[in-house]
Amino acid sequence: MAFSPRVIALLGFGEAGSAIARGLCAAGGWRASVDEGGPKPGDNAPRRLIAIDTALDQDARGTALGKTARSLDVAIERTYTEALGEADLVICAVQGEHALSAATSAAPLLKKGARYLDLCTVTGKMSDEDRAAIESGRGCYIDVAVMGGFFSQGIKAPMLVAGEGADEAVDWMNANGFEAKLLGPKPGSASSVKMLRSTLVKGIEALGVEALVAAKRQGILEEVLGCLGDADAQTLRGFIAMLVQTHVVHAHRRWEEMGLVAQTLRETGVDPLMTEAIERSHRRTVDAAIAPADGRVPNLDDALEILSKKVIRGV
Question: Which residues make Cβ contacts (< 8 Å) with residue 50, sequence separation at least 6?
Answer without folding.
Answer: 7, 8, 9, 10, 32, 33, 74, 75, 76, 77, 83, 84, 86, 87
